[in-house]
Automatic annotation (TrEMBL):
Membrane topology, as annotated: Multi-pass membrane protein
Keywords per UniProt: Cell membrane, Membrane, Transmembrane, Transmembrane helix
Official protein name in the record: MMPL family transporter
Keyword Amino-acid biosynthesis (UniProt): no
Record family assignment: Belongs to the resistance-nodulation-cell division (RND) (TC 2.A.6) family. MmpL subfamily.
Residue ranges crossing the lipid bilayer per the database entry: 178-198, 205-226, 232-250, 277-296, 302-328, 369-390, 518-537, 549-567, 579-601, 622-645, 651-673
Highest taxon of the lineage: Bacteria
Main localization category: membrane
Length: 707
């Protein structure tokens, strides 16, 4: 038998030392789990944006000892008889809050007339924290919430709001993850007709994800990793892990059907499909690390965690999966051969429906291509009007205290009260008064507070309340208007420097920064991935086709997200798309799309090398891979789609975006548009200019099944 490659040799080692390989993975999982539990997590949300007005304002607040350097919590009170009647209860509660850890100051509504609504039924106390929300321990915030809520009576409603509160509140259980796992098991069971066969890919994915989660907790002590990373890691790890294991396992079944014994089948499957998985995993990692080009601290940590997850799933597919196949090989072989005999007895051939589909689109390639392109462009169109931002308490479940506090403040003081703009003037009190006077008459500003000096008197701060809600387009326009028009005029008249900061302005800065740096990120990821495809297939047109089709599936996903979450389709509360999700989805989907591209086109290339019949190569390539691509896509869709069950709006958006992208990619693009385009390109699909061919190194992706 011809000698196999390195992946086949790796599979051979795992098969011979199956118990050792399994015990190594069990040991890794147990060690990192216990280690992560002992060390605890050190997640940190770093949304610092050097070079922006909001970050400059925060730095100045910290430097000059302004109370605005720390975040705040609002304790919101409502009494239909008027909050004056419960002053004694509220004063006692506020005194207790002032003595709690992480509390720098408490301002009572009874000492500030502007903190009480005009009808006197709603008021709020401002609890100033001694640091930014992400740096405050959750137990300290929980203590504030519990102390405030203890003051509730039959007539007095007390709610607590603010970013720190949103972070401390539990918004749901892991129902989405569990639903995704169950759905994946059902699809695998239907695909293979055997619980053992269905369990092998899923078990591989669970080992990988469990190990990755522990490693990320440990990595959080050395790197800046955001606290929303673990559920995203679970989401991507499950989808990718099952996907990679399934591609190898499906090839393993084919080898068994062709007469190989379980040991040979395992080596051949790894030597062929294992190469595809390795290439696909490297492509996803490259795409994720491309996020570093954006220079956004919070996303760099997420990219690192996801790259670590993909690396772990890839390792599990190449080492753990062959060991499991060696353990269950005889049982799986009996089941596979029994099913193959039944299929042969009925006169059916593997992939006949996919072969028929390929023949149909080959007869009418242009109409098929036109319908598919128009459908994807129509779904992509809403993405042109996508508005980036961040969810706030107004998007939280109505049962949470942060959401109820948000609604009460909007009811008592107007929609813009929940998204104040912090305008900083680098000057004395006179400069602050000039800024306040100008803001008060600015269109779009509902009210402007008196100027508040810093401890050293070097800064004056004015709080400007927009007329529109924090997520409204009018508020984003107001931020730009203040910076581009109002601030330069006041600076010219007074000679002081003015900065527009605060959480709402910082969200806008983040969205603007992502939008500005997105072209560079796309160019880096597309360029590197296309270069890899050129090396693999020694072709100019295939990488270009792959890049364009991948971009189509991603824009279709972003269009669907815009329709549902920005425009409120299906009754979803309208709001902006989370600012970091488009680049994150782009990185993940672009990498995963290459997975299917390589798996499909490599089989076409294998057939082309064997027969030099291009039409036959297209048909046989789709016939060999259509079923597994559809099954792998279906599993990823249900795993990602299950996150629509989450109470977290960000996870809902992420799940929908990934699910739609994979749906478009697995069904419309890989099973329709790729065969059509490959047919139209003919033999030119494999063309590479001779000078370039001489300079490019040879990279063998898949070995023929007979090797």
């Amino acid at each position: 038998m011809p000698r196999g490659g390195r992946f086949g040799a790796l599979a051979g080692w795992a098969q011979r030392h199956r118990w050792a390989a399994l015990l190594i993975w069990v040991a890794v999982l147990v060690t990192v789990t216990l280690g992560s539990q002992a060390a605890g997590s050190a997640y940190k949300n770093d949304f610092a944006l050097p070079g922006t007005d909001s970050q400059a304002a925060t730095d100045l607040f910290t430097k000059h000892g302004s109370a605005q350097a720390g975040d705040s919590v609002d304790i919101v009170l409502k009494d239909s008889q008027g909050i004056d009647g419960c002053k004694a209860v509220v004063d006692k509660m506020l005194a207790e809050v002032k003595g709690l850890p992480s509390v720098a100051d408490v301002r009572s509504p009874y000492t500030d007339a502007s903190a009480v609504s005009k009808d006197g039924t709603i008021g709020y106390a401002t609890v100033t924290l001694d640091a930014k929300a992400e740096a405050i321990p959750k137990e300290d915030v929980t203590a504030i919430i519990d102390t405030a809520k203890d003051a509730e009576t039959d007539g007095l409603q007390v709610e607590v709001g603010g970013e720190a509160v949103r972070g401390a509140e539990e918004k749901g259980s892991p129902v989405a993850e569990l639903a995704g796992i169950v759905a994946a098991l059902v699809i695998l069971g239907l695909l293979f007709g055997s619980l053992v066969a269905a369990s092998v890919p899923l078990l591989t994915a669970l080992f990988a994800v469990g190990s990755a989660l522990g490693l990320i907790v440990l990595a959080s002590h050395g790197f800046t990793i955001a606290d929303f990373t673990p559920p995203i890691t679970m989401l991507v790890g499950l989808g990718v892990g099952v996907d990679y294991a399934l591609l190898i396992f499906y090839r393993y079944r084919q080898e068994l059907t062709d007469g190989a014994d379980p040991a040979q089948a395992g080596r051949k499957a790894l030597d062929a499909a294992g190469r595809t998985v390795f290439f696909a995993g490297c492509t996803v990692i490259i795409a994720l690390l491309g996020l570093v080009a954006l220079g956004l601290g919070s996303l760099q940590g997420v990219a690192l965690a996801l790259a670590l997850t993909v690396l772990t799933t890839m390792a599990a597919s190449l080492v753990l999966l062959p060991a499991l196949l060696a353990l269950f090989g005889k049982r799986i072989q009996r089941h596979v051969l029994k099913n193959a005999a039944k299929t042969a007895a009925k006169g059916r051939t593997e992939g006949r429906r996919w072969r028929a589909l390929a023949s149909a689109v080959q007869r009418r390639p242009l109409p098929s291509l036109l319908v598919a392109v128009l459908a994807l462009l129509a779904l992509s169109a809403p993405a042109l009007g996508m508005r980036l931002g961040f969810a706030d308490a107004g998007n939280d479940p109505k049962t949470t205290s942060s959401r109820q506090a948000y609604d009460l403040l909007a009811e008592g003081f107007g929609p813009g009260f929940n998204g104040p703009l912090v305008v900083l003037a680098q000057g004395d009190e006179a400069a602050g008064k000039a800024v306040q006077a100008e803001l008060a008459k600015t269109e779009g500003v509902a009210a402007a507070s008196p100027a508040m000096p810093s401890e050293d008197g070097a800064l004056s701060t004015v709080i400007a309340y927009p007329k529109t809600s924090p997520q409204a387009e009018g508020t984003a326009d107001l931020v730009h208007h203040l910076r581009d028009d109002v601030a330069p005029k006041v600076e010219h008249d007074t000679g002081v420097t003015i900065l527009v900061g605060g959480a709402t302005a910082a969200s806008q800065d983040f969205a603007d920064t992502v939008s500005k740096r997105l072209p560079l990120f796309v160019a880096v990821v597309v360029g590197l991935s296309s270069l890899l495809l050129m090396l693999v297939f020694r072709s100019i047109l295939i990488p270009v086709k792959a890049a364009l089709l991948n971009l189509l599936s991603i824009t279709a996903a972003l269009g669907a997200m815009t329709l549902v979450f920005q425009h409120g389709l299906f009754g979803v509360q309208p709001g902006p798309i989370e600012a970091f999700l488009p680049v994150l989805i782009f990185a993940i989907v672009f990498g995963l799309s290459m997975d299917y591209e390589v798996f499909l086109v490599s089989r076409m290339h294998e057939e082309w090398e064997r027969t030099k019949d291009h039409s036959l190569a297209v048909r046989e390539g789709l016939a060999s891979t259509g079923k597994v691509i559809t099954a792998a896509g279906a599993i990823m869709i249900v795993v990602f789609g299950a996150f629509m069950l989450s109470a977290d709006r960000m996870l809902q958006q992420f799940g929908l975006g990934l699910a739609v992208a994979i749906l478009m990619d697995a069904l419309v693009i890989r099973c329709l548009m790729v065969p059509v385009l490959m047919q139209l390109m003919g033999k030119w699909a494999w063309w590479l200019p001779a000078p370039l061919a001489r300079r490019l190194p040879e990279v063998a992706l898949e070995r023929p099944t007979g090797s």
